[in-house]
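Inputs:
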Amino acid sequence: MITTLIGNYPKIAEGAYGTRLIGTISRWQRQEITDEELEQVYQDITRAILQEQEQAGIDLLTDGQIRWEDIVTPIARRLDGFEVNGLTRWFNNNVYYRRPILHRAPVRQGPILVQEYQFARSCTTRPVKAVLPGPYTVMAVSEDRYYKNPRRFVRRMAEILNEEARDLAAAGAPVIQFDDPAIGFGWPGGRHSSKAKTTDMKLALEGLQIATRGVKTKTAVVTYFGALNGRLSQLLNAPVDIIGVDVVSSPTTLAALKKLRRIPKALALGCLDARNTKLESVKDLRAVFRIASKLVPPDHLYVNPNCGLEFLPHRQALAKVQRLAEAARAFKES
Amino acid sequence: MLLTTSVGSLPKPEYLMTARSQARKGSLDPKQLRALEEQATREWITTQEQLGIDIIVDGEQYRGDMVAYFAEHLAGFQQSELVRSYGNRYYRKPIIVGKVGRPRPVTVDWWRFAQALTTRPVKGMLTGPYTIMDWSFNEFYPSRRAATLAIAKVVREEAKALEQAGAQYIQVDEPAISTRPEEMDLAIEALGIVTRGLRAKTITHICYGDFETIGPKLHRLPVDQIDLEFANRDFELLSFFKGRRFPKEVGLGIVDVHTHQIESVEDAANGLRKALKVFKPDQIYVDPDCGLKTRTPEEAIGKLRVVVEATQAVRAELANGRRSGLRTPSAARTAA
């Protein structure tokens, strides 16, 4: 069993690495400090976050996405073709992101995350995964004024993300994870289309097929915020090595998992609630692990919070990381 | 007809912002802060009277965040460390750690203070139970539903106390209601607990969100008036109401609160004219889209002035229109 986190992590920590990022970004926005000074702070915090995970005993680390406001705009801002626009609700959370608008065919001008990834990897001896948005989710949270066609948009984004994934694999990423909350949730922008809540599973999987083509490392898709609504068996056919399922947001997902027998892939079990501060008990976590361990062999079972931990204050986020490691240890020993 | 009002919050003047930050650091005592909050409240009430606003708000000069304020004054809540809201903006999100209770009235003193300063009605302003639940972490109640219903009972006590103090208008804001359409029924049930049997006119302000899904349930919200943002999407929301008989009053936002630019009176009046093709005149209350606290005081005053002047212009047209409707205007006069 492998403990891991999904991606983002609190950018500030009143009791640990501090809140200086807030002031640093404000000063950088006012052009009072240089890009290098901002970069230094990003690196310090990234290092601190990797250390926290190591010390807690997490097996597969993430860099915490300290530079990221959400999972889509860091990519959109660095592609030609997008404009990053007004504040929009991030799925059903009281958190907002800036909605990308596609004006022209998107073009990747070079590697986007490779340098950041290399830095994170240099901070630790443990494996660090690389995280990208899934092509379907990029489409779902953006406004398409160019293709005006979801399939063409998804396919083009998938090609771009595939180039990035290949570069990240070449940089040594042992796992490349595609975050696809829109698969579980449907499109968040319901007002744009009455059909938007229904996930086009065929298109989402087609996007992943293109995005993972020829990527010479393990690939993962993680879905969160939603109930999957009967789409679990389709999701299990996704052309990736690891399937991430959120069993916290809706009780129906765990019930659906219980009905399965064996899964031909690895499973990433999102079993701690990263959107509520209440700390799960070791006992409850072990019960969920037990269900999952009937579906996959131990080396094919990843256990993690249901989504990134940035919705939580740092203290509670760290408590969940430690609890995850503790429960996993207890489970292995039992 | 076409009474003017505000959604709730108004910007805090510079001196109050400074005082609040000093009070947080402990270099200003609570009594001094209170005196400045009262001064700012007095100023806003005078301003609203001078502008000609019909239904006054106290401007919430003593509140920070609309959920955190209640969480700080109710039992059962704890303040969290900072969490990010968007970009580089952070806030303290309350955590429900025990049984929610109301050891003492929360807003009644401030309402009395404000109402004593004016002969016009002052609205009682509350945050709704669904929004307080959705914008808090919950470590105590077994479900979102249980937490919402427990908070509803407490908000109900506060609404009742405002009514007993003499409030004729009580607004219970539910901006989170459009976040999860599947929980709309829960939000309706909880709001019903708050408003049941109140004689005061009840209002709720909700934000745009997933309107296609929640729209059809709007008429079931247990309040007399629903206040909505119309200006920031160029009144396209009106098309939803077209051709239906909406059984409630409508709070009609005719200026956008997210722009620095002050709308022209003509544009705002045109919005109101469009709305009059969909709603009856005595069904409409006119206000800005949302609370104005994120604007500067000057911008807020400018936008409120546009609300009043646009409404006055349209009221005059309605009055004239009625007169000319009784007579039969001659062809010559029509041409002129």
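The first strand of chain A starts at residue 2 and ends at 3. Flag for discussion at group meeting.
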